[in-house]
Amino acid sequence: MRLLIIGSLGGQIGAATRIAVSRGAKVSQVPDVEAALDHLRAGHGAELVMVDVGLDIGRLVRSLEQERIHVSVVACGVGADAQAAVRAIKAGAREYIPLPPDPELIAAVLEAVASEDHALIFRDPAMERVVSLAEQIAPADATVLITGESGTGKEVMARFLHRKSRRADQRFVSVNCAAIPENLLESELFGHEKGAFTGAVARRVGKFEEADGGTLLLDEISEMDPRLQAKLLRVIQEREVDRVGGTRPVKVDIRLIATSNRNLEDEVRRGNFREDLYFRLNVVNLRLPSLRERPSDVAALADHFVQRYAAANALPDRPLSPDARNLLLTYDWPGNVRELENTMHRAVLLARGTEIGAEAIMLADGTSLATAAARRQDFQPPRAPAAPAGVPAHNPYANPYGGPPAAYGVPPAAYGQPAGFAPAAPAAPVAADDEDATRALVGRTVAEVERDLIINTIQHCLGNRTHAATILGISIRTLRNKLKLYAEEGVAVPPPAGGDFERSGAYDR
Known about the structure:
ATP binding, 20 helices, Helicase, Ruva Protein, domain 3, transcription, alpha/beta, Rossmann fold, phosphoprotein, AAA+_ATPase
């Protein structure tokens, strides 16, 4: 844990430093906001900033956001000054700590920031196998590619690898390639010199240099522009970076981890991802199973999130009732661990009594989990009939919708079906609700329907762009461009969840 103290803290720097160091933190101190920004731009980094409440906290927070420097800000002031605390929180500080510093309060803040990395919770054999492999390869410096659906906890696994590696006492630096516009990602990764482009007001060390000696995570690397992939390939091969506007390369020593929720082999075939970069990244592949593939983990994760959010909201630690626990197992969690996490957070807030009952478990759109589970169980996509003996189970010419070929005017014998194979029954008449829905679309353009679908999906995902893009089957870059166009047209676009494409906990990846 790295702590940066800004200002004099009312003369309490020494006391705060001693407490933080005793709790295992590495402490640096600078006199003002400008010096703090220079410190962070130079790549020294920090997980937590404690700033004197008398300084311009608003400017500090705005500068951190504009320069995409991710660090928690805590304001400190002498005495329990309620007005100062309110001003600090409104300016963007996460917490307010009264001085002289209380050892337990400082320890709690440090622990809260450190706990954002999340523990790796698992019980299911499917996940045990992945974790066992991760432990085996963690001590090596080999590049690791972590794949899996959105929400399965790829960043959690990346941090697990770092903690188990020989670089555990060095920095872990994460870059979300999907969250940063492509025209800024090069500067974010490789750094820039002052004046290299409009807005480069000072020299900035990139994430590769910031992670020197430690681990660099390239999150959702499949969203990276192909032109930047070529430069990344050179960095991986040569282990040196060229800052934007720089004149000489800078050597770096890092362990590289990349994640993707897409099939990179398919992306290579489509020409969206460089084949040589894929092979460089895929030295070891860890595929995280979806939550429906690891059902034994549902209850363990639910209990973990219940305890965590009860503590975070100063609420009593209420266990899940037996009915609620059984209900969790009836749903297949398409949003994986992230969806379960958000659902448990809501349940903690909505629960009444001494237990969290089934009635408190609601999905993001307000639907009860019991109703949603019943709907998903009732909807079963049609399946193709079992192939007769001697016929391959997978027929590349079979009707993709599951009906027999004869229903499409093709002789059964042409597909290996036995003589007399009965065609599918005629389709049932369209339901009245479907007719109403179809009638509502008549007269509208495809662009209008697409816009409403995108906006509604983002609302369903509580503003989480990454999750929405996955559901829609488009890339983050495409979604970002669509939303920018809608905003220019005056359409109300739902705000992102906690920041520009910010994840909801580490399970967003």
